[in-house]
Specification:
Order of helices and strands: HHHH
Distance between the termini: 20 Å
Largest sheet: none
Shape: globular
Number of strands: 0
Length: 89
């Protein structure tokens, strides 16, 4: 997969993230792979907290849409608040 496709697939589901990590262009799409991983991890955190988690999940949904749009446009714009976290180096 090329860089753009790898970035888009990484945002689709956690299965897409695993596929993008295994098959895709890891070096070219490293930014979007990292962003998608951070969004999914923080999405699980929102599921653990009952009432406040709903508001957090809406924020995570907005971050997911922003990340997906950035991947489609081939831009490296970090998502708000959690975009500065780096897991994949």
């Amino acid at each position: 997969m090329d860089t753009r496709t790898t970035g888009i697939v990484a945002y689709i589901t956690w299965i897409g993230l695993v596929i993008a990590l295994c098959v895709g262009d890891k070096e070219g799409a490293k930014f979007h792979l990292n962003q998608a991983l951070v969004i999914f991890i923080f999405g699980f955190v929102g599921a653990l907290i009952p009432c406040i988690g709903w508001i957090w999940d809406v924020f995570i949904l907005v971050c997911w849409v922003m990340g997906l749009i950035a991947a489609i446009n081939e831009e490296e714009k970090p998502v708000p608040l959690i975009g500065g976290i780096t897991i994949i180096k």
